[in-house]
Amino acid sequence: MTVNAENTVPNQVHIVAIGGETAADMQQITAIDRYILFLSQKESPQILYISTASGDVPERIEQFEKKFASAGYLVESLSFFRTPYPTVKQIDEMIARADVIFVAGGNTRAMLAVWKEFSIDQQLKSAMRHGTILCGVSAGAICWFDLGHSDSGGGYSLIPGLGLLTGVMCPHFGSEEGREESFSALLAEQNILPAYAADDGVALHFRDGKLHKIIRTDAAEHGKTLISLSDSERPTAE
Fold it and tell me: What is the per-residue pLDDT across 18-62, written as a single tens digit (0 to 9) for each?
């Protein structure tokens, strides 16, 4: 089964899907972070951190803000579970002024449900069309695709995403027990294409809807990936 590409991605769109982060990655600017910031083509890009998937845990938000602010970047955080709760106008303004939107990892199902309630899914699509760099890790990586390999339902399964990228994405490929086996089995069973997977410390950059480049942190030089684009091409795993 080939996933229906109903939402055609326009030109000049950049989405970076990061398979996962280590504790060290969360505390220092990585090669992947530098690559994402460079894509904005701005000397001091405005970064918006959306931490819905992690339940807006204060420690995670503070860690992200400290990491980028200490390197001289402007950071805002959009939280739905912490007071004062943002107004619709505030949400619109935060998304509109962001050059880079970074989505945290966590519970993908819960995140997408909250986004739908507040129309964040539609606002992210609009931001994408206006050239905002979209990126994220784990849940923040798979949410951009038609389907994502997620454990947010209590076990590994494929769940619907936003459909900004065609196909299916698996994070933590090779670094979480059972991930690779589950994803490979689902691909063989359902023949979903295109299919992508990335390990912790590995990012997939999609430009204009197509895989453009694979970026790795120094520690993830040998991190696993899987790319399977069509029936005529065998899956390539590294």
Answer: 999 999 999 999 999 999 999 999 999 999 999 999 999 999 999
Query: Which pLDDT belongs to residue 3?
Result: 52
Rounded to 5 degrees, φ, ψ at 137 are -120, 140
Within the chain, strands assigned E span 14-18, 46-50, 74-78, 100-103, 133-137, 145-150, 157-160, 165-170, 195-198, 202-207, 210-216, 225-228, 236-237
Rounded distance, CA 100 to CA 219, Å? 24
Catalytically annotated residue among 172, 175, 184, 205: 172
- Catalytic-labelled residue, pool 138, 152, 184, 228: 138
| CA nearest to 156, candidates 225, 108, 226 | 108
Which residue is associated with the tokens 């899987």? 226
Q: How many CA atoms lie within 13 A of 108 on its CB side?
A: 29
Q: Confidence class of residue 232 from pLDDT cuts 50, 70 and 90?
A: very low
Query: Are residues 147 and 192 in contact, defined by beta-carbon separation less than 8 angstroms?
Result: yes
Residue 130 designated active-site: no
Residue type, 79: S
- The strands making up 195-198's β-sheet, listed across from edge to edge, are 157-160, 145-150, 165-170, 195-198, 225-228, 236-237
- Residue 235 in 3-state DSSP? coil
- Buried b / exposed e over 132-159, threshold 16 CB at 10 Å, is bbbbbbbbbbbbbbbbbbbbbeeebebb
172 catalytic residue (yes or no): yes
Cis peptide before 194 (omega within 30 of 0): yes
| CA 172/CA 151 separation, integer angstroms | 11
Given the structure tokens 């509109």, which residue do they identify? Answer: 96
